[in-house]
Structure formats: C-alpha cells, structure tokens
Amino acid sequence: MSVILTSPTAVVPRTIPTVDEQVRTEQFAYDNAVVRQFAVATAFWAIVAFLVGLMIALKLVYPAFLSGLPFLSYGRLRPLHTNAAIFAFAGNAIFVGVYYSLQRLCKARMFSDRLSAIHFWGWQLIIVLAAITLPLGFTTSKEYAELEWPIDLLIAAVWIVFGWNLLGTILRRRERHMYVSIWFYLATFITVAVLHVVNSLELPVGLLKSYSMYAGVQDALVQWWYGHNAVAFFLTTPFLGVMYYFIPKASNRPVFSYRLSIVHFWSLIFLYIWAGPHHLLYTALPDWAQSLGTVFSVMLIAPSWGGMVNGLLTLRGAWDRVRESAVLKFMVVGVTAYGMSTFEGPMMSLKNVNALTHYTDYIIGHVHLGALAWNGGLAFAMLYYIVPRIYGTKLYSERLANVHFWLATLGILFYAIPMYVSGITQSLMWQQFTPDGVLQYPNFLETVVRLRPMYMLRAGGGTLFMLGGLVAAYNLYRTARQGTFIAAESAEAPPLVAQKRAPLSAWHRRLESRPVQFAVWTFASVIVGGVIEFVPTALVRSNVPTIAAVKPYTPLEIEGRDLYIREGCVGCHSQMIRPLRAETARYGDYSKAGEFVYDHPFLWGSKRNGPDLHRIGGKYPASWHFVHMKEPSATSPGSIMPGYPWLYDSTLDTSHIEGKIITLRRLGVPYPEAFERAAEANLRAQASSVAESLTRGGMPANADREIIALIAYLERLGTDIKAAPSAAATAPAAGTGGH
Amino acid sequence: MYKDILLSITGIETFPVVSLLLFVTVFTAVLISVVRMDRSHAQALAMLPLDETSSVRPVGEAPR
C-alpha cells in the first residue's frame, strides 16, 4: 500500500519523488498524551501568570493591597509573574506546538516516550520551584533569569532532554525534508541552551545564593544579550514555527511563500543575536556596542515583517474563514501584534526615541502587546485547534471562543493603550524644564500620582484578558469532556530509507534534509553576533576605564546589597543615570562604567516606577531611610512603594559573609588576603555606627536588624566617585566605612 | 577569571572579523540560493504540513 499525497487545493503538484510505490508503508502512532499534558499545563499556568500579573497591577494602584507580607510584596511577585508568563505559560505552549506539529511534520512518533515524560514533569518541577523560591526572595535579580543556580542546572538538564527528544525525532523522521517550522524549533533549542548557560554563569555562595561571574558593564551586556534573545528565541522563533505550521493547517492552504520563509529564518536568527545592546542605550556601555545594537535592531524590521507578511498573506483568499474561525482570528490578531511589536522594537532602538521610552511604562505596553496578543493569541489558537482533534470531536462552543477572542482583544487594548499614554506622560514630565531652566516636576512623586488612572485602566484590561482565559479553559474542558481522548493516533508513512533522494542541486535543499548539519549552521549563526559583541568588551580594558576612587563594598554593604536583591528593588528602581540633562539635573552626575566594576550582579534595572537610586547615597540621612522603608508614605505622601516592616524585625543573617567575601574575591573583587576573617567584626562595627547615628537622630534601632544593612548599602550608593582621587588612593582597599 | 580563559585562546582577536565575514557570506548565499530556487520545489515543500498521514480527522471535516 502506498501513501497518496494529494494537496487540498490541488493546484500544486508534488514534485519531490519521495515514495517508492513498491515499498510498504509503516504503521505507527502519534503520541497525543504528551501534547495533552502540556496543553493542560499551558491553560493552568496561564491563569496563574495572569492572576499574579493582576495582583501586582493592583498593588501599583493600591499599595496596601496584600501588603505587609514579605512573600507577597511587589518586588518578589514581579519576577514570579514574568517567569510564569514566559516560562510556564508560553513555555508549555511552545511544547504543545512542538510535540504536536513535529510528529506530524516528521511523520514519526516522538523519539522517546520516557524523554517526553521527563521533559514534561521536569519542566513543571522547575516552575513549581520557581513559584516557591521567588516569593521567598531567592533570586539572582537578572531579569528572566532570576532563578538560583540549582534550578539553573535543572533547567539545563531538562532542556537537554527536550533537545535530545527533538533531534531524535528529527533523525528518525519519515519525511526527508525538514519543513520551515522544524528549523525554528531547532534554532530555539540550540540558542536557548547557549543563552541560558552563558548568562547563568555564577559562583555559588550557598545552596540558594550565588554571584554572577560578570560584573557591571559586562554583566549588563551579557544579561541583555540574554534578555533580548530570550524574547527572540523563546517568545519568537518557536511561535514562528507554530505560525508556519498552524496557519496553513487552520486555513487549509500552504504558506504564502516558502522562499520568503527561508530568508526569514536565516536573517532573523543572524540579526536578532546582535540587537541586545539596544536595551542599554545611553548607559555606561561603550558607544560602539550601543551603535551596533541600534543598527541591527533597525535591520531586524525586514525579516520580522517578512515573516508577518508571510503569515498574513497565507490567508489570502480565505479571509471569509477568519470571520468564522476563532482559531484564525487569534492567529490574525497575534501575527498583526507581532508586526506592531517588531516595528516598535527597532523604533525604540533609535537613541532619540529610546531617550523618551526607556525606563517608562511604554516598555510595559510594548512587551504585553507581544506577550498577550502574539504569544497568548497563538497559544490559544493552537489549543482551540489541537484539543478538539486529539479528542476526536468539535470545539464545545465556537461562540464561547468568540467571547474569549473579544475579551482578550479588548483586554489587550485596555492594557496597552493606558501603558503607552502613561509611559509618554511620565517621560515628558521627567524631562520638562521651566523657562528658567529648572525641572518643572523635581519631585518624582508628582509624576507617579499622575499615572494612577492609567494603572487602574491597565488592571481592568488585565482582568478582561484573564476572564477570557477562564472562558477558554472552560470551553476546552467541555470540549475534552464531550470527546474521547485519542492517546495514540494511528498514522502511516513509508520509511525514509525507501524514499528516493531528491536531486540535490541547491545547497539549501541539501541542508534541509540534513538536520545535524542544519543544527551546526544554526549554532554558528547565533554564536557570531554574541562573539562580536562580547569578546571585545570582555577583553579590552579601555572599555571600562577604572576609577581609582571606586572601592569594593564593605561586608555590611554586601549584606545590604543582597537584601536589595532579595526584595526585588531593581524591579522599580534603576541604578543608571543616563547622560541626559533631565537626568543629571534630577539625580546628579551621570553613571560611569568604572563605577560598577565590583557589582556582581549589576543592578541597573530596566524600569522606573520609583526614582533612580544610583546617587541616593548621601542624599538623605539614615533616619530618613529608616522611616521611609517602614512606611514610604510617611516621608513621601502618595507614594506607591510598599513598606518593608519585616526588615525591622528580622535579624541580619551574617553566617555567609565569610563565604561571600571569598567568592567575590575569586571573581576579581580586590579584598585583601584574609579579610574574610575580619569581615564579621567589620560588619558589626559598621552596623553599630549606623545604629548609633539613628539613635542620635531620635530613632533607637537595633544594630543587628536587616534594615541597618540595607541603609548602609543605600548610603554608599554612587558616593565613591565624589571622593577626591588623592584621598581615595590612600584609603584601605576595603575600608570600614567605604565612604 | 573568565577573562583569563578567553585571553588564553590563541588568535581570539580575529574571531569578530571571522564572524562578520561568515555572516555576510551566509546571508548572501541564502539570498542567492533562494532567488535561484526552483519554484515548484518550494511549493512542494510548502505543502508539507498539509500531507495527512493520520487516519483521524476532526468531526465534520471532509476527508481529503
């Protein structure tokens, strides 16, 4: 028996001589069980991610909402929200798409059911560990890479299992040519592996504490090379693979231009990897690296829009179906949002636009347009397509799916538009000078209270989107209930060895039928950009001019800094003053690369819900911080910052200070030999002096409380550079006061 | 620490140049190959997702 390959439109003759008519086909079964597992996980974690997002959105409107509990504070929940949205919701959705489409495109069952199971349960374990450790304050503070080193190792192991299963399936395929979706999946696997390993290089201090291998500028460069490419290779390429498979399936017509998809693929993976520095414009990053980031970001419009056009034009002549099918509606809105986001991105990479939008809510609008419409849209479209099929039934209610579509679309609009308005409002207020040449809104709070209505609207938009998600979960559950699950879907195809090889004239055609070579080329492509950007910055000393006055942190300041990291202060406060008049007028001297050479990890931040803190040291007395941190509205009426009362009750854990000094010295921080043995005494002495100054100011404080360490760190921030170089040269390498 | 490892690689300063040349070469090669690609072959590849090998079809969908 032979397989008859017919096309639905019957306009395209199949010209690849693939099937030897004499050979019998092989019977096998697609594994739908793992697809169902990932689908259930996608729906579940979607609701969790949306719920945590809504909680932190409400906290920005009502700071008292769920306040007073350390594990529910904004700073700790924000990374939980981003990780849940990216790795739990979008991550599981990716695996739904890959496991469903890969088997069918390869005409083969997944390589190993055991690997599929390890992958599924391993991934869920990682998510659960994240959901436990992040609220407890165990974080590296590097955005979207917050998980501590043991979980990083687990991620690497599970990712390898996924890749092994992916490559094994591809190698055992019954279809010689790898369809474009598979290339995107391969690129995803390879690049995420590289990104994760390089960005997570850290030296452990304890089981759940580590310091980044890199410091300051280099840490920032690696982090945003990672952060940007996590968006590229976790939130873009796998979803493009999904788009290239599911739009043709749902509309029953081939992709608009296969040739365009080849250019799309190679140019996208080549260009994306270079664009990371656009997250660091106007910062202390060397200028040439910033410019490189801008140029490649602008070039990225071409492949991104090529992909969008390719997806949308696939529906040419089938737009009537979009009106009826919720699957296609979500796809169209998703792909359109992809086009909008990938236009915004390059525009914001232009320095003048970036000066306006960076650190503002505009970015929050931008990422949610991508996450909710593009990733969310494609994920839900995929679920609506797959679930009825693996249950051998129809969608329970097309009407409910349409209700979901409108709730989601309105939710996205009510989310993104207020954020755009809010972002531009705050930016313009930050930069507004009076005719006399002074800041019109010198008090940062004035710019915060103005945004409250926008934050309320945003919470409303998020609620709509979450309601849509609940409707979807119900609809999919009812769909499953009315059908019968087909765990093993039988299929048949001739084995690859029996198929004649196509005449391999063009090299790309050859490449498409050789997955290992293909993977190697993809690997080479993504390494290129990283190497060009990173090697010179890492090696050329002149890129980071050293400043003699900049000294390592004292033991107490290290502990304070680690508390700053634990509480997620970096989620709302930057430590990077850009060389712009509005910023130097507000915060003080702009930040220099040399000031961060001992910062493992860097804490530049990416968002200003509150003011920049790089020059906060010396701005207020310790007593101000003491009052402010307990109840921010006491010193700053109208502040949306939550209080941190637990820092006043908890005793500072100093048991790791010796290990911290040793670890940091190993990373290149010049603490004198044997300093670790004096560290504890040094810490106590400085803590007593801070407590005494508080007591003198009428605020009796215990020297052993966490708040003392945090105040010591805040008081130190950005002050080194003010010290006269000659005086600093004679100061001890790790002075007792540090300032 | 990691700088020492990087610096110990002989000729690392040429890596960026090699990378740039590789990028330009591959990009040009892809463009040329795509422009010269056989149209019918491309169309056949585009049909790959629509090959049905499974016996299962959703309710209400006609067999192709």
Lay out the secondary structure.
The complex is a heterodimer of chains A (739) and B (64).
Chain A: E1 26-31, H1 33-61, H2 74-106, H3 113-133, H4 149-171, H5 180-199, E2 202-206, E3 209-212, H6 216-234, H7 237-251, H8 258-272, H9 287-299, H10 301-313, H11 319-324, H12 326-348, H13 351-357, H14 361-390, H15 398-431, H16 444-449, H17 452-482, E4 488-493, H18 507-512, H19 515-539, H20 555-566, H21 581-587, H22 622-630, H23 632-635, H24 646-649, H25 657-666, H26 675-696, H27 706-716, H28 725-730
Antiparallel strand pairs in A: 1-4, 2-3
Chain B: H1 2-7, H2 15-36, H3 39-46
User: What's the rounded overall pLDDT mean of chain B?
Assistant: 72
Overall shape of chain A: globular
How far apart lie the N and C ends of chain B? 62 Å
Number of strands of chain A: 4
Helix content of chain B: 55-70%
> From N to C, what is the helix and strand string of chain B?
HHH
The major pleated sheet of chain B works out as: none
| Backbone shape of chain B | elongated
What percent strand of chain A? Answer: under 5%
CATH superfamily of the largest domain in chain A: Cytochrome c oxidase-like, subunit I domain
Mean pLDDT value of chain A: 89
